[in-house]
Specification:
348 residues; eight-stranded antiparallel sheet; 16 strands; 30% helix
Amino acid sequence: MRPLLVLLILGVSGANCGSHTLQYYYTGVSEPGHGLPVYVGVGYVDEKQIMRYDSDSHIAQPAVQWMETVEEDPGYWERETQIHKGTEAWFKHNVKTAMSRLNQTAGFHSVQVMYGCELYDDGSTRGYEQYGYDGREFLTLDTDRGIYVPIMTEAQITTQRWNSPEDGTAERHKNYLQGICIEYLRKYISAGSAELERKVISQVKVSGHQSDAVTKLHCRVYGFYPKAVYVKWVKNGEIDLMSEEAAQVLPNPDGTYQLRVTVEVIPKVGDSFSCHVDHSSLKEPLTVLWEPKNSQTNLFIIVAAAVVGGLLIIAAGVGGYVIYRKKNPYTKAPNKDNDSSPASSTTA
């Protein structure tokens, strides 16, 4: 699955709170394998797949019901199919080109493209376009300057050509990301508003586990939608704590998401720790205070009470026995010179 690795390296991990994204991922490989067709293209709105095309089917198809009627023009999906057929041919050519640049003549190799645009609630936008080869970043588009930037040495020839006024690829793609991409994103948001605009309020639970002098604090946020969420631990209301463990947003069976953020702390007297959560379903950020249960103190009290109780019982027993001996004449100590116990009078 190495060809898919670049999607994680290059990809943008979800939309920010209060934004929508339109993203496309294209992958072309030198030969079929690893469960991949020679070419596949997929599109996402807010990380929900909306379309797919691959070199096995040669047909662009909607992935969700509301995309079937996103365009009143009945020729929309036919045009998408023709566009991807052209892109498939482009990838077949450029996989071979990239291999030759790296002096490779055989083997399994891949070229990938990730591009998209993001629309924020305040109306601002941003676009991005990145290329990868064999799981490594190859080149990227600087949308502010409108030029491609080589990441690998072998990408310099491509960036020089695409940046040239004669070719104009950099300028065209910049204009697309800042214009047409945003227009289609708005259209898709409108078509899928019932699903994309759905908001489910987050549930938050905090807990702690002590080991030696270190306490692990867990903040679990679950049952929220959409996926974008911001979670952090704060000490004494002002110090942000960094998590030592990777925090991943995971899907729930009902279509909502969950996340757990963990930090290690050494609590001191007077310290307070709280989990702060920001999500589009909340009217304002949520703060949940962690309160230790003082389990060690309670255990000490229980053990101390048991010990004291046991000592009292023993003392009461000894005192009662002494009083009993003094009052009962038949329990006086025997005369050592006249031992009449059965054992001493027994003869062998």
